[in-house]
C-alpha cells in the first residue's frame, strides 16, 4: 500500500469517527445486532386506533367502509395489501352497493373507499408502521369526480318548497324554520345541527356556525329569523349549551329529519323527487343569488369559504369581504334591514 493510499484511508477513518461522534454513536454499538422491528399490525388491530384518532365527522363518513375493510381483511397486516388488492376490493364494493336513483355507477362508493383506506394508511405512516413509499392506497387513483347535479332553485320552486314544508308533516313549524335557516345563511346541515342558544347574538342578529373542518364563523340573520330561533329554543326547552333545533317533545333533531322532510316533499312535489333535491340545494340557491348580485368575494364570505385555491382563491385574499357586506347582501335577500348595515 502506498503512502498516499494510507493517508487517504486514515482521512476516511477520521471522517467516520467524527460523524459517529456527532451522532452520539460508539463503534461498539455498531457491532450490536439491531433490534427486531415489531410486526406491522393487522387491520383488526389497527382500525380501532384510527377510529379513536379522527373526529366524529370523519368517523361517520368512513365507518361503513372501515367495517367492510375489517370484514374482508381483518387478519391481514397493513403491509400485506397491494394496490391490486385495493382495486379488487373497490370493484367488489361497487358491485354490491345499494343502487340509488341518483347514483353514478358507484363512483362515489369507490372514491369513499379509497379515501377511507388512505386515512388508515396515513395514520400508519405517521405512527411509523410503514414508510410513505410503502403506502399502497396512494398508488390507487380515485375516480374522477363528475360535476354536481345540484343547482340553484328558481324563485317559484323555492316558494313551492317552503309552502309544502309549512303545511304538511307532523312538525311544520320545525320544517319551515329549517328551510328559512338554510336559505338565509346558506349553512351546511352540520352547521345547523350544531347551533346552540349560546351561539345567538340577538343584538347584532348574528349566529355562530360550527361547520366542517372545525371552522367557526359568525353569520348574519334577519331580525325575523333571530326571533324565530329564540322562540324555538324557549318553547322546546333548549338550554344555553344544548342543541337548539328540537322536536316538540324536546328531543334533539338529527340528520334523519332532513331525510324525512325531503322524502315527504318529494311525494308532494314530484320535481323534488325527480331531481333528488336536498337541503344542500338551498346553499346553491342563496350563494348563486349573492354572487350574481354582489360578486364573488361576498359570495365566498357568505359561504364561509376560507381555503380558496387557484387564481381566484389567491385574488380573494386581497378582496376579502367584510361581515357588514355579507349583512348587506342578506338584507336585500330578505327585504329586512340588518343591525350591521
UniProtKB/TrEMBL annotation:
It comes from the Bacteria. The keyword Membrane does not apply. InterPro entries: DNA_brk_join_enz, Integrase-like_cat_sf, Integrase_catalytic, Integrase_recombinase_N, Tyrosine_recombinase_XerCD. Residues 148-331 form the Tyr recombinase domain. Keywords: DNA recombination, DNA-binding. Belongs to the 'phage' integrase family. This is Tyr recombinase domain-containing protein.
